[in-house]
Every structure is written in C-alpha cells, then in structure tokens.
Amino acid sequence: MSIAIINSSTILSDVDGQTIVTALNQILPRFCVDWNLPIYTAFYIAKGKTSSISTKVFILDNSDVQNALGYHYLSANVPYGKCFAKTNLLGGGVTLYSANGAPTLAQTVAHEVFELLIDPLCNSWWDIGDGRTLVAKEVCDPVQGNNLTANVVMSPAKTSYNAKTRKVVTAPAVIQKVGLSDWILPAWANPQNTVGPYNHMNTLRAPFTLDRGGYVIQLAGGTSGQVTAMRFGSDVSEAQKAKYSTKKRMTKKTT
Length: 255
Prior knowledge:
Blueprint: E1 2-7, H1 14-34, E2 41-45, E3 56-60, E4 70-75, E5 78-84, H2 85-90, H3 105-118, E6 125-127, E7 133-136, E8 147-155, E9 158-162, E10 167-171, E11 174-181, E12 216-220, E13 223-228, H4 238-243
Parallel strand pairs: 1-2, 1-3, 3-5
Antiparallel strand pairs: 4-5, 6-7, 7-12, 8-11, 9-10, 12-13
Helix pairs in contact: 1-3
C-alpha cells in the first residue's frame, strides 16, 4: 500500500522533503502493525511532480484554516491531507528537528498520515465508557506534544587511504535527526483496559488520558466539536482548551 507526500511548498526543499519521508518510512511499518493495517510505504513527490497514488498528503505554504498546521478531510469522497510549511515556521516550529522539543513540519506530516490512514472518512468516534461521551478517532491528538526522533543517514561513513600519512582515514556518517509524531495504541480506546501500553512512546498510564499538549475532540449531550481535557488528567492548558473549543469535528487540526 502506498501514500504520496507531495511537496507543493515554495520553502520546503526537495532534500528536506525527502528526508521527512525517509524518516516517516522508518516508523510507518510499526504504526501499521500496531493498528492492524496493511503495511504502507510513503513516496516523496518532488516539486512540480504529480502522482497516480490515490492517497495523498500535500505540503503547502500557508494554512487555509485558521490556527491549523495540518488537517485531513474529504473532497468528492476522496480522503486527503494537508500540511503547511510556512504556518509551521511562523508558529515557532522548525522543519526537521528541534533539541528543545519545538513542533516540526515532519511531525505534522506524520500526524496527518497516521490519522488519514485510521479514519479516512473523518466520521469515526470512540465511546469513553460513560454512556454519553464520544471522542473523535484521532490517533495523534492525545499525544500531540510528544516528539519521536528518527535518525536519517544523509551520507554514509567513508573510508579512504592517506598516502602522505600512510593511514586509513574514516569520515563519520552524516546523520540528520527528524522529529516525528507519537501515536496512541488500540488499548487507549478501550476504557476497560488496565494493562497498556497506551501509546507508542509509553508515556500514558490509562485509557483516554492525554499527555502534555494533547487534546481530544468530544461529542457529548448532543453537542459536537468541543475540544476538551475531559475528566481525565492532562497538562492541557485552559488557553489551549479555549482556543479549540469551537473547532468542527470534520476539520481535524494539528496544533
């Protein structure tokens, strides 16, 4: 199975775009196994190129939805994802990696790929077990603040012989770190599960809990679209809750 990552941005270089996809392909098989999906491979589509691959995520410059770094949606019943390179940078993010945990464009791309594969029609919900509350089937939102690091070899180690010194010289490999998205596991969506783990990075300790910076989209009492920390422990700030309290269920955000 294939998914195309199409670079339609004026600021993302093809080198960085390919690096994002190479890093994504390191963890995509694990994600697919965790969620019992066919194994997907992401293919990078360079600037000015098109693809016949049906499942697509586009990297663009500026967000067309306020406050969104990325989302996935439907057009003529065809699922797709969008990620926004300039919007990410203007919001304090970086393209590939940040040692201080700043959000990355690569993280947004992984986020939208994972959620597009799990809920392509943007219409699935989980019951939290209280008989009245559902949360949107979003597998990265609850752990959105977690930055998963992959290492991409940009240039392999090289060995050469120095005739003057009569010594073998080895130049180390050039490694680029890439910050990608964490994801929840099926156990997270089972309110009766007491074993775990509940997310790939194994930081959560119970179903339907949120990690720092995480959130959920909730449907309760006939009202949909509310984003909340719910009744579970989390580090979601009141400002973040307010910022997303009016988001529509069908417009899935990466923040």
